[in-house]
Design brief:
It contains 6 helices and no strands. By secondary structure, the protein is mostly helical. The chain has one domain.
Length: about 150
């Protein structure tokens, strides 16, 4: 199930949304902005909302599957990570209604996903889910970095 959620939110739904956006509203927004908007909405907004909700409600999953710990002492920290993810997701979700939120959410998402991806690389005994997270984190970080750079240069 994890791979399906990651594939949908980090690749499939952003690409479908971009195609619909550009197909039904040609000229309404630039290709760059459409890419930024939809990767921010799905990859940062929806993905971090789902992750944050799970981390807050069910912290044992993240503690065991990601941090490889069986101690309950880490659960309050996982819940706080969940709240941080929920906070970032709200700005990204609101970016559909408030287009000026797209760039700040992209910057935040690029930093978060880029750093998380690098931390996954450093993990010597990654599980399948950690490999999926590493690839998707680095992939969306790259998309967001390109969007931020192109916005800055424009």
């Amino acid at each position: 199930m994890y791979i399906v959620v990651v594939a949908l939110t980090m690749l499939i739904l952003p690409l479908v949304s971009i195609a619909i956006d550009l197909g039904f509203h040609p000229g309404a927004s630039s290709v760059d902005f459409s890419i930024g908007r939809w990767f921010v909405f799905w990859g940062v907004g929806v993905r971090l909302f789902l992750a944050g909700t799970r981390q807050f409600i069910q912290p044992t999953f993240t503690a065991r599957e990601i941090f490889h710990t069986t101690s309950d002492e880490i659960l309050p920290i996982v819940r706080e990570i969940g709240l941080a993810n929920l906070s970032a997701s709200v700005v990204a979700l609101l970016s559909l209604a408030i287009p000026s939120f797209v760039l700040p959410a992209a910057i935040s998402g690029a930093i978060y996903y880029g750093a998380a991806g690098v931390l996954h690389i450093a993990e010597p005994n990654r599980s399948r889910n950690e490999n999926i997270a590493m690839v998707s984190d680095l992939g969306i970080a790259a998309v967001l970095i390109v969007f931020v750079a192109s916005s800055w240069l424009a």
